[in-house]
TrEMBL record:
Protein name: CENP-V/GFA domain-containing protein
Basic and acidic residues composition bias: residue spans: 7-19
Family matches, as InterPro entries: CENP-V/GFA, Mss4-like_sf, UPF0047_YjbQ-like, YjbQ-like_sf
Chain spans, region Disordered: 1-24
Alphabetical list of PROSITE patterns matching this protein: UPF0047
All residue ranges annotated as the CENP-V/GFA domain in the record: 37-123
Alphabetically ordered keywords of this record: Metal-binding, Zinc
Example of a GO MF term: metal ion binding
């Protein structure tokens, strides 16, 4: 990913964002006491926090977070920009402005590691939303106390985060099953993560479990893959066409009863597979940052498809 640039339309203050917190590097004396340290997943980007308790914490549920994190909610802690100190300034960072689909520093924007692409924080005009999963809270009692400090308030759109075990809750193993109708689509690869999540609000009631998605057809498939760039899905469809091309001359396949695209569709379906299984952790799909659920349609004409969703797991009652 190329280094991000500054929008020329922004104010002079915004144009000098590199010289302002959290990107201007400050000495130990200037920054003050460091309460927390964090880093991206690859460790190339490191930062510090000089505020012990965040201004607030919440579960963000904006569309941008849903797309970027592949989940309906994202745990975020709010800090002043001056509370944050990136050890290498803006080096190694990339920026994404979701409303205009710009990969540049234009507020509000998302801040990511340019090496491993880990989302690090959302930056606004005056505050940032950091992602506590990247912060080192230590172990044992100190970690428990830290998680209590970073717990979302009761105003959060889902029940407040409770890092401490709830002794009054009883865990039970349950099953749930539902059939989901996918919109009729022609040949192509489609990202359906948001539809699956909207169709399965029951996911939020599971502490730990598995979601299995099974498509009931032999000329399409399901997969987990890149959720960021639509070109990946187009390239995947093209690559599968090269592996199993249509037999317009009648030399490749015996089966052609339903058209020249039918036998290649069966081959692609067998290669990709009819199902995916995803872990559930604390009411959310435990997918990686860049993973999304794909529906791959291999027939030329539009077909209505059905997916059986089965949840098995431990619920809190």
């Amino acid at each position: 990913m190329a280094q991000s640039k500054v929008s020329t339309k922004d104010s002079k203050e915004e144009a000098r964002w590199e010289d302002n917190p959290p990107y201007t590097t400050r000495s130990e004396k200037e920054f003050g006491t460091v309460y927390w340290s964090g880093s991206c997943h690859c460790g190339q980007v490191k930062y510090q926090l000089n505020r012990k308790k965040p201004l607030d914490a919440k579960f963000c549920h904006c569309i941008g977070c849903q797309k970027l994190h592949g989940a309906p909610f994202q745990w975020a802690a709010i800090f002043h920009k001056s509370d944050v100190n990136f050890l290498n300034g803006h080096k190694g960072l990339d920026f994404y402005q979701s409303s205009d689909n710009l990969r540049e520093h234009k507020l509000p924007c998302k801040v990511l590691c340019s090496h491993c692409h880990s989302p690090i924080m959302d930056e606004g005009r005056n505050v940032i939303l950091s992602f506590p999963e990247l912060i080192d809270f230590g172990e044992g009692q100190s970690k428990k106390e830290a998680l209590d400090l970073f717990a979302p308030s009761s105003k959060s759109p889902i029940p407040a985060f409770t890092p401490s075990p709830a002794p009054t809750s009883t865990a039970t193993m349950t099953w749930f099953q539902k059939t989901i109708n996918l919109p009729a689509r022609s040949r192509g690869s489609y990202l359906i993560t948001e539809q699956i999540l909207s169709e399965l609000p029951e996911l939020r009631t599971y502490k730990t479990g598995l979601l299995n998605l099974f498509i009931q057809h032999t000329s399409c498939a399901l997969s987990l893959n890149e959720n960021w760039d639509a070109d990946v899905r187009a390239d995947m469809s093209d690559a599968l066409d090269r592996i199993a091309p249509e037999d317009r001359k009648g030399d490749l396949y015996r089966h052609s009863a339903e058209g020249t695209d039918d036998m290649p569709a069966h081959i692609k379906s067998a290669l990709i597979g009819a199902s995916v299984t995803i872990p559930i952790t604390n009411g959310r799909l435990a997918t990686g940052t860049w993973q999304g659920i794909w529906y791959l349609e291999f027939r030329t004409h539009k077909h209505q498809r059905k997916v059986v969703a089965t949840i098995q797991g431990e619920k809190m009652v």
